[in-house]
Design goal:
Its EC number is 1.3.3.4. It contains 16 helices and 22 strands. With 449 residues, the chain is an alpha+beta fold. The chain folds into three domains: 179 residues, FAD/NAD(P)-binding domain; 101 residues, Orthogonal Bundle (protoporphyrinogen ix oxidase, domain 3), CATH 1.10.3110.10; 103 residues, Protoporphyrinogen oxidase, mitochondrial, domain 2 (Polyamine Oxidase, Chain A, domain 2, Alpha-Beta Complex). The longest helix is centred in the last third of the chain and has 18 residues. It is globular. The model has no long low-confidence stretch (mean pLDDT 95). The site of flavin-adenine dinucleotide has 36 residues, from helix 1, strand 17, strand 21 and helix 16.
Length: 449
């Protein structure tokens, strides 16, 4: 019995691990990965005397998937929590506290925005519940249209975009309400009389429990443990080029015949591989766009007087190249122990990817200059690492949930084929772990033993 997992990102590695758990040593699990290393957009490098994550650096700890997986893999001692500091937002040439009690930047009260937006904007937010809300139950629109209509564009550009930029490398105009904020869409479907009311209904109760977690040695620790536990045959630096039905199973070029396949590839690759075997699913996947980003990790002198915040997010329309800074040594207590101050600068959003064409030197210079601008202090990096993520994140555009439902329905009858990945039911690592687990369950159910 031979199972191919195409794509060695976290979704694929989790699928391989769950298949090994369910099916034991009797199966030959092959992970086929086109690049020279596994992990996909999870990648840990070295800077400032230790590991630093150059892709994802955290996970939502209110979801159980990553915490459970770490526990299973004996990684409890790797769990680290952020210090609980808040980020700032850079807007109109000044740093402001990020408003509290928002849903992805959509406010639940007007006062939290005072100073970040002008008084007319605060008034518009405060009086929003007085204006009748038009919402078609079951419908979907982009986040920008919804929030700009109710709260004004300043709220979009200074509160919502900076947060969406972090999660999707997108902007509110490219992200649909239903897929990105399903609980909010459900509250609106249920007849919430205003956006303010809908946000209040779905905001989690205030809690002192940490929202995020991370790994002391970076995501590399999770990838190594997953690979050891999955014991797959790893085939790297080789891309899957074609998928076809075979006698009683599947044929994956260039691997050959297999009994089952997990496609854990980004949406456009999945679309190409499904082209002949599930044309409707392929069409749906082909409509999912990707955003690209780049990251500059900087080691600064330890005594650099960075603000005491977890990061600085940049509002849409500011004359800066960077879109966000993570003040890693402030955000994570375990990184504060290093001999240097660590900062990550992020570049690129959907529709604004010019920084991806910059040279490494241009990215590093812009990162340092922009950080000096937003902190007001001189920035002199001692060492830097540049990492690009072309097509790193799928965009959850309006209609995304329907698109995914179409895809899943179109492959439902294809026995021995399962899909996993960040484009399905959430881009975060916990959602990817869940998708890898679900794909393995689907395959395990239909294998003859
Ligand atoms: C810069 C950045 C920061 C992020 N930060 C966070 C964060 O802090 N917290 C969080 O929860 N999430 C974060 N995310 C999101 C999260 O990391 C990703 O959504 C998740 O890791 C995606 O995993 P995946 O396995 O689905 O896809 P990928 O990691 O994209 O893996 C897909 C794999 O398929 C391979 N592949 C492609 N084509 C082929 C082919 N033809 N044949 C074989 N292999 C192929 C690719 O090389 C890749 O290795 C971040 C994402 C980015 C880009």
């Amino acid at each position: 019995m031979r199972i191919a997992v195409i794509g060695g990102g976290v979704s694929g590695l989790v699928a391989a691990y769950r298949l090994r758990q369910r099916l034991g040593e009797r199966v030959d699990i092959v992970v086929l990965e086109q690049s020279a290393r596994t992990g996909g957009v999870l990648h840990t490098g070295e800077l400032g005397g230790g590991p630093v994550d150059l892709g994802a650096e955290a996970f939502v700890g209110r979801r159980p998937e990553v915490l459970d997986l770490m526990h299973e893999l004996g990684l409890d001692d790797q769990l680290v929590r952020p210090a609980g500091k808040r980020p700032l937002v850079w807007a109109r040439g000044a740093a402001h506290p990020l408003p509290g009690r928002t849903l992805m930047g959509i406010p639940s009260d007007a006062e939290s925005l005072r100073g970040l937006i002008d008084d007319a904007g605060v008034h518009q937010v405060a009086t929003e519940p007085e204006r009748p809300l038009q919402w078609r139950p079951g419908g979907d629109i982009d986040v920008r249209t919804l929030v700009a209509d109710r709260f004004g564009t300043q709220v979009v550009e200074r509160s919502v975009d900076p947060l969406l930029g972090g999660v999707y490398a997108g902007i509110s105009a490219s992200i649909g309400v239903r897929a990105a904020l399903p609980a909010l869409a459900a509250a609106l479907d249920d007849g919430a009389p205003s956006l303010t009311d809908a946000v209040r209904r779905v905001l989690p109760a205030p809690s002192s429990a940490p929202v995020f977690g991370g790994l002391r040695d970076g995501y590399a620790a999770l990838l190594t443990a997953l690979t050891e536990a999955a014991r797959p045959r790893l085939v790297t630096a080789l891309a899957a080029t074609r998928l076809a039905r075979g006698s009683g199973g599947w044929v994956v070029d260039p691997l050959g015949a297999v009994d089952a396949v997990v496609l854990a590839t980004p949406a456009p690759v999945t679309a190409r591989l499904l082209h002949y075997v599930a044309p409707e699913a392929a069409r749906a996947a082909a409509g999912i766009e990707l955003s690209s980003s780049a990251l500059v990790a900087m080691a600064l002198p330890r005594d650099t007087e960075l603000p005491d915040n977890s990061g600085i997010l940049v509002a849409t329309g500011e004359p800066l190249g960077a879109k966000a800074f993570t003040l890693s040594s402030r955000k994570w207590p375990h990184l504060a122990e290093r001999d240097v101050a660590l900062v990550r600068a992020s570049f690129g959003r959907f529709g604004d990817e010019k920084s991806l064409s910059w040279t490494d030197d241009e990215l590093v210079t812009t990162a340092a200059d922009d950080l000096a601008t937003v902190t007001g202090i001189p920035i002199t990096p001692l060492a830097t690492v540049v990492q690009r993520w072309p097509g790193g994140l799928p965009q959850y555009a309006p209609g995304h949930a329907d698109r995914i439902a179409t895809m899943e329905a179109a492959v439902a009858d294809l026995e021995g084929l399962a899909l996993a990945g960040a484009y399905l039911h959430g881009v975060g690592v916990p959602a990817c772990v869940a998708s890898g687990t679900a794909a393995a369950e689907r395959i395990a159910l239909v294998l003859p033993y």
